[in-house]
Model the fold of this input.
Amino acid sequence: MFWRKRRKTEDRVAADSWLVVGLGNPGAQYEATRHNVGQMALDVLADRMGARFSSHRTGARIADGRVRPGGPRLILAKSNGYMNASGGPVSALARYFDVPPARVVVIHDELDLPFDTLRLKQGGGHGGHNGLRDIAKALGTPDFLRVRVGIGRPPGQQDAADYVLRPFGSGERGALPVLLEDAADAAESLVDEGLLAAQQRFHGRAAR
Done:
């Protein structure tokens, strides 16, 4: 019992720690789809930190560390479950590591933004995004930070639910690596500089 209590205390993190969540679905069939762009960006952050994802008791895979010496500690998280049930693991991680909603950053796909566009915000509605809806419900507040990664609307009469579960098109894949780097930069900027400064930095960028 003493070891368990001591271990729990050691696992708590300092006040400079942030929970950064990449939304997506589990399984190889979803890895390259538009709906998983948040998890793709999280892989970029993990590479920068030299960290690897491992299973956590909260039903997620996490990687934690610092992008640079002396920088804030980032706890990167991917849920083991499906997008629509993201809230449980996110709220469990926030409780486990004592991270308040104001220091939770969610990176997610956004249909209402053109492909290769980023927007940053705190709070607001979910815009029909079931992952955001579930996180807001589980945290008891929508006032977490969001990195909204534009994937654009489906062409023609294609159903949006089908569109987000398809891989990026050939015309998009060339720009995708830079977009993922930008999304990772945006998450870092939110943590390092705050929302207003990060918005000023990224909202002025036109889609490439």
In short: The beta strands are 17-22, 54-56, 60-66, 73-79, 104-110, 118-122, 145-150. Residues 1-13 have pLDDT under 50 and may be disordered.
